[in-house]
Write a structure and sequence with these properties.
mainly alpha, three-stranded antiparallel beta sheet, 4 helices
């Protein structure tokens, strides 16, 4: 995890951890770190904590985007109202076509463009990370069941075991590919299971 969310300090969010010399080095989003003696039980606790914070962040961002969508709707309505107000100004029709309408376009279009650029450029990486984590959260149980299937990682470079701690090593594109692979594997398994069931019925 590289990005936090509102309502929690970055010093409380685990970015990732690594195991060195029988110790677990825990790295937090504020750049600080701590270490504990390695035990399998403590590693599982860390993974569960990271999983829970990923769920909490996903829920937090869902609320954020819902509010952002509402703000955008209000912004667009206000801008449209202003544009309509300018259009309805009583002026000569030729003057309207030649000067006023192009003027409205030249004012409104840059405002829309700047608004959208500022909105998305700063949060693009955060949004991509959120999408990637959301895919993992939905695939987690399927991935545990099918991770040893040779086709699970078709088309991507496997970068060690995929879990909530190593997820940052995989791109959004990687996760989309893994999702497609797992879907195809499940479809094939279901297809084979149905064939097997039909054969048993015939016997």
């Amino acid at each position: 995890m590289k990005y936090g969310y509102d309502g929690i300090n970055s010093s409380d969010l685990i970015g990732n951890y690594e195991i060195l010399n029988d110790k677990i080095i825990i790295k937090y989003l504020d750049g600080s770190s701590s270490e504990i003696k390695y035990t399998k039980q403590d590693e599982i606790k860390l993974l569960n904590k990271m999983f829970n914070q990923a769920i909490a962040r996903s829920n937090s961002y869902a609320l954020y985007f819902a509010k952002s969508k509402k703000r955008d709707a209000i912004f667009n309505e206000v801008l449209s109202f202003c544009a309509l107000g300018l259009v309805n100004v009583p002026v000569n029709s030729n003057l309207m076509i030649e000067y006023i309408i192009p003027l409205i376009y030249n004012i409104c279009f840059p405002i829309f463009a700047i608004h959208n650029y500022l909105k998305y450029s700063d949060v693009k990486d955060e949004v991509n990370e959120l999408k990637k984590y959301d895919i993992y959260l939905h695939l987690r149980h399927t991935l545990l069941l099918l991770k040893n299937n040779p086709n699970a990682f078709n088309g991507i470079e496997k970068k060690g075991e995929l879990n909530i701690n190593t997820l940052d090593n995989y791109s959004l594109r990687d996760m989309k590919k893994i999702r497609n692979n797992l879907t195809n594997i499940e479809l094939e398994l279901n297809k084979n299971a149905k064939k097997s069931f039909v054969k048993k019925k015939k016997k």
